[in-house]
Structures are given as structure tokens and as C-alpha cells.
Amino acid sequence: MPELPEVETIKRDLEKLLPGKIIRQIEVKDPTVLTGISPNGGPFRKVSADSFKKNVIGKHLSRFHRRGKYLIMEFSDQTALIFHLRMTGQLVVRQPSSRERIVFYFDEGLPLCFADTRRFGEIFFSCDWKKEPRINSLGVEPLNGSFTVNLLKEKLKDRSAKIHSLLLDQRIVAGIGNIYAAEALFLAGIRPNKTAGRLSKMEVEKLVNALKKVLNDSIEHRGYTMNSYLDANGQKGNTQEFALVYGKQGESCVNCGGKILRKVISGRGVAYCAVCQK
DNA sequence: CGGGGCTCCTGTGCGC
DNA sequence: TGCGCACAGGAGCCCC
User: Taking the CB of residue A40, how many other CB atoms lie within 10 A of it?
Assistant: First the structure.
């Protein structure tokens, strides 16, 4: 589910709702979403509820950040909780239901609930989130001024992988997932299976502009709700009403009227228009 | 480096 | 209505 626009929406919501609050209690209903760092930098899911609580209870929420698809809850002592929602994770301030995996309670008001049907999501504690390998190894933020045509052109140079695959590689550009990769490639008129290193400067320019546009537009529409995505207030997003190709296989292209096709590239399905995308 | 295949999980939607 | 299968926003790992 959540790609950059969805995580950004949640981040902005939480920034309005929670700073200043103190975490007084945590209900760990499913400890498997609590992770630590294994020696190779990946997650391991054997963090005890007790050690998690010990790290977090009593902390003052100070700020929220987003880096790629990671949401960072920073405390006043600079330590942080880092969340990744993967496919079905939700972070919602609401009355807890039986589906919550972790619930954070404050002195007053509704608690912050983490739900995640498929349990791919993770929450981990960090003493210095900016130095976490998983944060540090991320590529450029596509909505920053530093995401330029020259930078992307350089990253794609000599790469023989397909452009769609590289857009999903978080080490190159952070925060893009399958929805926005498909939408941006359509807007840029680029075939998803085009060899990345063969994109012309003009194509890279169109791609950079298209990525910024689809991500900004989606933030404005509060994210894409297919199934499970909700903002921090528990509301669905509206981006799905504006999608042009994602999930539209078999329908007509808004540009040329031709049929939207779908193919699998590196294990991920991508919808595209064979006429409009070269 | 590229990509196929598999894994972690659960739910939904489709064809029969 | 039921069953089995494909597929779903992500991403890491092994292997060729």
C-alpha cells in the first residue's frame, strides 16, 4: 500500500495530532511487528514487548519525519520509533478495534493504533534514526530540489535493467512504489520495460517532472486507497479516482483510446499503453 | 549487475 | 455457495 504520498499524508496528519503528547502505555497485541536490526542490516522479528516498552514508555513526542516510505516518530530526547507500513500497515488515531497489533496510549485523547493485516510491516526503536543503515541507504527524495534531471540521468547511466524496476529500487529514488511508477511512466510516455540506460535526456526530464507531478497530486488527494490504506484520521484517500493506468488494464487509454495492457516486469505487474509509451 | 523465484502473511476476487 | 488459484501497495535473500 503506502508509498511516498500515503506516508506523507499520515505524517502530516500525525504532526497535527500528536506532538507534545507523552506515551503512557503500550499494548503489544502482536510482537512480530516489532523488529530489530540483524547483523546484515535487515529486520529480525524477535524483539520482546518488554524491551520495546522500556524504550518507549514515558517518551515525549516531538516531531514526525518521512524518509522514503519510512515514517519517523521522533522523541524529545532525539531517540525515535521508525515505522514501515509495507503493504497493509495502518497508523490511525482511533478507538482501538480487535485488529490492532500495537496501540500507543497517551494521557488523554484517542490512542495511536498500528494495524497490519499481512504483518509485513515493522516498527523499530532507534537511538539515532538519521544514522540507521536502512534510512541512510535510501536514494534521493523525489520531491526535493536535489532530485534533478542530471542526477537521475547519472543514476540510470549504463544500467541495463528496465526503468520500471529501477524506479522501484529505493536506493536510487526513495518512496516510489508500483502505483506511482506506472503512473509516472505513462505521463512521461516511456515504456516500463525500456532499458534505463537508454533513456534520452529529454525522456529523463519528462520522467522527473512526471514523478514530481504524480506524487504531489497524490498528496493533494490524500493518497491512493485500494483496500486498506487510511490516513491517520481513519479516512480513505482519493487518488484512485484520478489514476490513469494503474489497475486499468483492459480499459481505454485516456490519451489515445487504445487498450491499456499489463505485463509482468521483474515480478511486478505494470499497466501501460503501448501506443502512448515508447 | 539483472532478474527469476521464493519468503514473510492474509484477504479478495475471479473462473469454474 | 464452494473451491482453488492468481494476485495485491513492499522488500530481502539466494542463485544462476
Answer: 7
In the complex, which nucleotide's C1' lies nearest to the CA atom of residue A195?
B2
3-state secondary structure of A125: strand
User: Which nucleotides on strand B sit less than 7 A from a protein beta carbon?
Assistant: 1-6, 8-12
Q: What's the CA A114/C1' B7 distance, rounded, in angstroms?
A: 23
Q: Are A21 and A64 in contact (CB under 8 A)?
A: no
CA–CA separation, A175 vs A123, rounded Å?
17
Q: Are A139 and A156 in contact (CB under 8 A)?
A: no
Considering the candidates A53, A86, A212, A268, report the single residue annotated as catalytic.
A268
Pairing between strand A112-116 and A89-93? antiparallel
**Is position A142 annotated as part of the catalytic site?**
no
| Identity at A169, one-letter amino acid code | D
What is the tens place of the pLDDT at every residue in A248-266? 999 999 999 999 999 999 9
**A243 CA to B2 C1' distance (Å):** 30
pLDDT for res A1: 63
Cα-based distances in Å from A168 to A4, A6, A135, A151: 12, 16, 16, 17
Cell numbers 536502512: residue: A134
Q: Strand, helix or coil at A124?
A: strand
Q: Taking the model in full, what pTM does it have?
A: 0.97
Nearest to A123 by CA among A76, A56, A218, A60: A56
Is A15 catalytic? The answer is no
DSSP labels for A205-244?
HHHHHHHHHHHHHHHHTT---SSS---TTS----GGGG-S
Distance CA A83, CA A114 (A): 9
Tell me how far CA of residue A225 lies from CA of A88, A221, A238, A241, in angstroms: 11, 10, 7, 9
Q: A111 catalytic, yes or no? A: no
